[in-house]
Amino acid sequence: MASSKEIRNQIKSVKNTQKITKAMEMVSVSKMRKAQDRMRQARPYAEKIRDITAHLSNANPEYVHPFMQKREKVKKAGIILVTSDKGLCGGLNTNIFRAVTHKMQELHAQGADVQATTIGSKGMGFMYRAGVKIVSQLVQPGDTPRIEKLVPIIKVQIDDFLKGEIDAVYLAYTRFVNTMTQTPVVEQLLPLPEGKLDRPDPGYSWDYLYEPNPKAVLDELMVRYIEALIYQALAENMASEHSARVVAMKAASDNAKKIINELQLSYNKARQAAITQELSEIVGGAAAV
Fold first, then answer.
1. Is 152 helix (H, G, I), strand (E, B) or coil?
2. Which of 12, 226, 241, 250 is the most exposed place for a label (fewest CB within 10 A)?
3. Residue 7 CB partners (closer than 8 Å, separation 6+)
4. Which pLDDT band holds residue 102 (cuts at 50, 70, 90)?
5. pLDDT one-digit tens code per residue, 126-181
């Protein structure tokens, strides 16, 4: 059995750790609420522009934007991976890494190479370890995502797609469901998936009148479509990160409390044994005298 002094040091160490995890939990609770509000505010716009582009993919416009042109075979693909910059958020990053690894294995099985754009230091480290070429990266995007920070790094993948150097672009992030549940998502960003609507087929086709002309409207709309989806992905990932960290830090604080109680019980037993031994020595000495 450990001595009383050793147990006291262990209790002190666990209490110090508990203070840190409790403080991190409180900070993440504050950030989580702001991140969730920001994510929910951005969702209606992202969903509406996603619906419009899905309708466009079913329409027959005079001008077909390059983002809507299908490639016969995917020889090279780009992946935009959104992760957190910090750890201590449970299995958040591990789950999206597993989903991305599965997607890369599918692409490699089809004979396609992969290049990556990473948002977040955890994703950058993962891609480096996986041996994937990183063409652009962004670390420390801050607590408030800004589209002007995202555009330059995303433009690298978009330009490669327009030049024909890559045939598809995928977006990987963690979608926020609720505080306890976050779902890893890997979805096709380019070329535009045909008819990607969550609602049932209405049974009729869509057509549009363009002013001043289809090219001007679609060129502008497609850029806004990409920006909206990337911004929403980052907002979803931030909300998921803080929610996962709150849950992880609360579990760590609760575990620390259990460990402290167990160590306190061991300390009391050790102290009682030490007192009993001292009394036995005193009584034995008095009897010898």
1. helix
2. 12
3. 263, 266, 267, 270
4. very high
5. 999 999 999 999 888 877 778 888 888 888 999 899 888 898 999 999 998 888 88
The tokens 């449970």 sit on which residue? 90
C-alpha–C-alpha distance, residues 86 and 139, integer Å: 10
Identity of residue 78: G
- Joined tokens for residue 200: 């049932």
Q: How many residues does the chain have?
A: 289
Q: Quick one: which H or E segment has residue 133?
A: strand 133-138
* Cα 34 from Cα 228, distance rounded (Å): 19
* DSSP strand pairing (181-190 vs 76-82): unpaired
Ramachandran category for residue 131: left, alpha or beta (phi over 0 → left; psi -120 to 50 → alpha):
left
User: How many angstroms separate the CA atoms of 99 and 126, rounded?
Assistant: 12
Q: What does residue 182 show for φ and ψ, rounded to 5 degrees? A: -135, 135
pTM over 0.85? The answer is no
pLDDT for 169 equals 92
**Distance in angstroms (rounded) separating the CA atoms of residues 269 and 276:** 10
If you ran DSSP here, which 8-state letter would residue 136 be given?
E
User: Tokens 């262990």 — which residue?
Assistant: 10
C-beta of residue 110 within 8 angstroms of C-beta of residue 148:
no
- Which structure tokens are listed for 45? 């716009």
Show the domains of the chain with their CATH numbers. Answer: 26-197+212-247 (3.40.1380.10)
Sign of CA dihedral 124, 159, 154, 170: negative
